[in-house]
Design a protein that fits this description.
Low-confidence stretches of chain A: none
Structural class of chain A: mainly beta
Largest sheet of chain B: 6 strands, mixed
Distance between the termini of chain A: 39 Å
Number of helices of chain B: 0
Strand content of chain A: over 45%
Distance between the termini of chain B: 37 Å
Number of strands of chain B: 10
Radius of gyration of chain A: 13 Å
Strand content of chain B: over 45%
Order of helices and strands of chain A: EEEEEEEEEEE
Oligomer: heterodimer
Order of helices and strands of chain B: EEEEEEEEEE
Radius of gyration of chain B: 13 Å
Low-confidence stretches of chain B: none
Largest interface: A-B, 21 and 25 residues
Mean pLDDT of chain B: 97
């Protein structure tokens, strides 16, 4: 079964840091690009960051550029999101999602991990 | 960057047909594929349409997608509405290293 499982969410103070992980299984992880997408409470979906299969291409949304870092370890079938200088507005459920580069859509989503930034 | 605009909410009765629009603010709607995701309360998004009008396996043919260059918009049509179709629906497209989502449409089947 194709599966993505996020972890690492939690409560953090403004200005703090958190590292999210996404464990992939059931498919050849090293062949796929990946996205992080977030959803603030009661709000819509917002794309956060993209990484290509070999990590050679990385993109960030303007809202997180300079504060978040995406990475992956294909040997461990894992995707990461290092989040620094966290703000209240980063509070959201964070999803990892597999990207189909043929059409730039996402065909597999994890269950999400919740990040709460609050003092 | 462009925006994708969706109606905030739509409602329709079981058995009827509903169409949700997604209008691109700049650039051609045809320049990049449009996807549609369904998100039920408390669940992750799932794809109901990709590449403008393709259905993933397992998605019933009651779901269809299209694009209209004259209005620069995409549409998701759900026919034979069922109560289980009640959910939030998001359109999504891509351009210049950015993935863009519409604001979402809450579909109520009453």
């Amino acid at each position: 079964e194709v599966q993505l499982v996020e972890s690492g969410g939690g409560l953090v103070q403004p200005g703090g840091s958190l590292r999210l992980s996404c464990a992939a299984s059931g498919f050849t992880f090293s062949s796929y690009s990946m996205n992080w997408v977030r959803q603030a409470p009661g709000k819509g979906l917002e794309w956060v960051s993209y990484i290509s299969s070999s990590s050679s291409t990385i993109y960030y949304a303007d809202s997180v550029k300079g504060r978040f870092t995406i990475s992956r370890d294909n040997a461990k079938n894992s995707l990461y999101l290092q989040m620094n200088s966290l703000r209240d507005e980063d509070t959201a459920v964070y999803y990892c999602a597999r990207v189909q580069n043929r059409y730039y859509g996402m065909d597999v989503w994890g269950q999400g991990t919740t990040v709460t930034v609050s003092s | 960057n462009f925006m994708l605009t969706q109606p905030h909410s739509v409602s329709e009765s079981p058995g009827k047909t509903v169409t949700i629009s997604c209008t691109r603010s700049s650039g051609s709607i045809a320049s990049n594929y449009v996807q549609w995701y369904q998100q039920r309360p408390g669940s992750s998004p799932t794809t109901v349409i990709y590449e403008d009008n393709q259905r993933p396996s397992g998605v019933p043919d009651r779901f269809s997608g299209s694009i209209d260059s004259s209005s620069n918009s995409a549409s998701l049509t759900i026919s034979g509405l069922k109560t289980e179709d009640e959910a939030d629906y998001y359109c999504q497209s891509y351009d210049s290293s950015n993935w863009v989502f519409g604001g979402g449409t809450k579909l109520t089947v009453l």
